[in-house]
Write a structure and sequence with these properties.
about 140 residues, five-stranded mixed β-sheet, 4 helices, globular
Length: about 140
Amino acid sequence: MDHAHPLTDRPAEEAPDARPTRRDAFEHLRAAWYAEHALPEGVFDEVRFGRYPDRGAPAGYLAVTWEEGDAFGAARLSVASADWPLLYRYRDVLRDLASLSNRPVTPADVKEVLAAHGFEDRTETYDAGPLFDPAELS
């Protein structure tokens, strides 16, 4: 006997998944239209990659950064402790990034590795909409 989903009255196997769809993606902050506001102080460039929902920011991510004052190509990898499971998930990506460590690493290098692993580029290179509704000024 099929049991109905409590919110839709459809059989449970047809009920929509309550969790949003997430996919592997990245964004290159210096290339984004909002770069001036998104880059942390002291960071010249950053490529973030992680699990992105269909819309919006990632739930968790790893960041490759290039800090102001560092030698050209001196990239840093950082990840918050809550996102450490991504280190295991992306072990093949990290292995390929490690193979670049014998030379200066650029954002293009990181994006090339990510694209080779099927990551989607989510960099917003243009402002998709107004920051406010002009009607709000009235």
